[in-house]
Structures are given as C-alpha cells and as structure tokens.
Design goal:
This protein has a six-stranded antiparallel β-barrel. A five-stranded mixed sheet has the order 8-7-9-10-11, covered by helices on one side. The protein has five helices and eleven strands, in the order E-E-E-E-E-E-H-H-H-E-H-E-E-E-H-E. The protein folds into two domains: 115 residues, Elongation Factor Tu (Ef-tu), domain 3 (Beta Barrel); 124 residues, 2-Layer Sandwich (60s Ribosomal Protein L30, Chain: A), CATH 3.30.1330. It starts with 9 loop residues before the first strand and ends with a strand. It has 258 residues and is of the alpha+beta class. A hairpin with a 2-residue loop joins strand 4 and strand 5. The longest helix has 16 residues.
Length: 258
C-alpha cells in the first residue's frame, strides 16, 4: 500500500477549544492560509466554498457501528474515520488577505486546513434528495435548527415568512411522524410565495413536480403522506421579528384544522 503525504495549507481559527465545544451548526471561523500559499487565494469571491480539513483531534480508525447503531463510518458523519477528512460547504463572508472569514465550521480551533474550493452550483448542487433517515434529530429544537439552516442556505437571510416556513415544517414533521424532507410527503402550499419558498427548501421538492403544489394565497398549507394521513394548517398574521417567531407559541403562528 502506498503512503500519501498531505500538506496543511493553513489552520482554522475560532473560539472552540476542543471537539466537545463544537455546537450543532458550527461557529464563525477564520481560515488562516499560510503565507507561502497566500497567492492561491487570488480570484476567490464572497459566496460559498468547500472547506476540507483534517480532524486531528479525532480517533483515526474505521468503525462498524457508530453511536450504537448499525451504521458504519462510511454511512455517517462521525469524525472517527480511517482518514479523518472533513468537508463542509461554508459561506465565505470576507477575504482579508490570506484570512478567509466563513459563517460556520463544525471543527475546533487549530484544525489543519487541507484545501479550499469554490462551490460551483452547476456541479455541486443536487436539489431534492432526501437525507438519510438517521438525520432526523430526536429533539425538536435540533430539528428546527436544521430547518432554519437549510432554509437560509437556499433562500438567504431569515425573514418572517421563512421563519414561519421553518415552524410549519417542524409541525408537519411532528404531526405526521415523518421527516419533513421525506419523499413520502406532498406539500400543497396555498400561502404567500415567500412561505412556500421556505417549505420548498425544507422538503427538497422541485417546482413543477408532484411533491410541491402552489395555489392562490388562502393562508393554508396542507401536508399529505402517501399512506393517507394529512395535516392542514391555517396561517395567522405574523410579526416582523423572525427570531421571535422561532420561539413563539405555535398557536400564535398557525392552527391545525385537520
């Protein structure tokens, strides 16, 4: 077996001292590219980039079972890997010479940086695939955080209609007992297009397909499982603070009609 050598092009800098400090959605970070490679940053623009790192603090081995499940290392995102390479799509906010400021990385301070590549939608974007079943988090607050992250990645900064879409997705996930992005769900959106856009992001359903139907704004969203159960939500007028809407009582945002 041949040996292969990797050369760090820099290091990740943030306030996370150990892997245990890394929050669910990561944290703002700076990619410090080494001076000898600084010229390779030329041409990068704010937008999205792929960030490849070496998880130096993790165990370097493969696993047949991860977190007590039957999933092996290749079927999970565990840092326990034979070659602990991590890849993250991050939003590049600012370029300060060889220092690249990104919105969030789920690695700790001092993690070796292996490569940075521009995100190219033509090659890298696959819209519509469902997540593996294990990606459905157990805690509602984690599900909501995941929905918000997905929506803002696809639709931009969080707005009141997008916050409402995240809360609707959480309600449907709970009421129909199935992941909101499951291909077993059909979304009938008779609501403002800004809300429907957020639901499209969560569901992964392309426009024009049978899984996402748009209709006139009747302040209603209907979600149907292919095996029969459904939930119909009647929207209420919403406020102007999207963060407050994420924490507001559900009945202040919408009610379930069936």
């Amino acid at each position: 077996m041949n040996d292969y050598e990797l050369q760090p092009i820099g290091y990740v800098r943030n306030d996370l001292r150990t892997p245990d400090d890394v929050p669910y959605n990561g944290a703002p970070s700076v990619l410090e590219v080494r001076e000898e490679y600084a010229a390779a940053v030329a041409g990068l623009e704010p937008g999205y980039v792929w960030v490849l790192t070496w998880l130096h603090a993790g165990e370097r081995r493969w696993a047949r079972e991860v977190h007590g499940s039957v999933r092996g290392s290749f079927a999970s995102r565990t840092p326990t890997r034979l070659n602990p390479v991590a890849i993250t799509a991050a939003r590049l906010l600012e370029i300060e010479g060889p220092r690249l400021h990104v919105d969030a990385l789920d690695v700790c301070d001092g993690t070796p940086l292996l490569d940075v590549k521009p995100y190219v939608r033509e090659f890298d974007c696959i819209f519509g695939p469902a997540d593996p079943a294990w990606r459905r988090a157990n805690a509602p607050e984690l599900r909501l955080a995941r929905f918000v992250r997905t929506i803002t990645r696809f639709c931009g900064p969080l707005t009141p209609p997008l916050a409402l879409a995240a809360r609707l997705a959480l309600a449907a996930d709970r009421d129909l007992d199935i992941a909101a992005n499951s291909p077993e769900l059909r979304w009938e959106c008779r609501c403002p297009l800004a809300v429907a856009g957020g639901l499209q992001a969560v569901s992964g359903a392309p426009l024009g397909g049978p899984r996402l139907l748009l209709g006139p704004d009747e302040a209603q969203v209907r979600v149907i499982r292919t095996d029969g159960p459904e939930a119909v939500y009647r929207l209420r007028p919403w406020g102007e603070d999207p963060e407050a809407m994420l924490a507001a009582p559900e009945e202040s945002l919408f009610t379930r009609e069936s």
